[in-house]
Hints:
By secondary structure, the protein is an alpha+beta fold. It has helices spanning 2-21, 29-94, 103-134, 147-157, 159-165, 183-200, 254-264, and strands spanning 142-146, 168-173, 178-182, 205-213, 216-222, 268-273, 279-286.
Amino acid sequence: MRKKAVKKNKASVVKLSAKTKGTKTIPNKLELLERFKALNAELQAQQVELKVANKELESAVNVRDEFMSIAGHELKTPLTFLKLQSEIRKRNLEKENITAFTKEKLLKMFDSDHKQIERITRLIDDMLDVSRISSGKLSMNLEEFDICPLVYEVVERHHEQLIFAGNEIEISSVKSVNGRWDKFRIEQVITNLLTNAIRYGPGKIIKIKIGIEQNEAVVVILDQGIGIAEENLARIFLKFERVTGMEVGGLGLGLYIVAQIIEAHHGSIKVESQLGQGSSFTIKLPLTL
């Protein structure tokens, strides 16, 4: 009888060992605390990332709203002008007022309309360029050409505007500066800087220098206009910046686009300016990309 009891007891011990063999180890308080700290740190890091993302989103929304506001205003101005002129002409025709349509008056009307249409075109082009730059799709069609005649062509194209504003142009250039760039985009850069010089320094001399320095093409456009305050120099190549203190039209995108085009060519642009003493913009472009 005693032997059987012993055997039964051994069997129960074996069963108990089998049950305890597969159980999980319960972590102690120190391990739980470490896990909690790790999870808490991860949560805090995610909260910081979320705050940064929210700020970036708010900033993007504000930029979009500002862009739409400025674009709406700038587009509305020439469109309102064209609409009013159209209504006046229609009224004159209905009254058979033929004297309102003499050759001289018609030429003046067409010239005025053309300027407003050009303004709308420039605004739309700027908006499209900013969209391309933001999406990284600013196309570059590189070709070999001499930048010197290109600068002269841009100046000649603005001949009437220069006469109207009372500006004189002085160009000093080497014989030729050949390089591989996007001709359309470089023309866009020169045009923007020249029109700014005319706009902000009417009646003043504009100087343009073209040369080569250390395997780079160098173009300097110097005006004697109103100038830019020192504290604003770092901002003028940003979006929507108009820091001249003058009431002028535009989206404040011209110099931003200029800087992006130069950067796409692996070049550089520098501005030096003082209030009341004009501004100097220096462009440097590597001769080969």
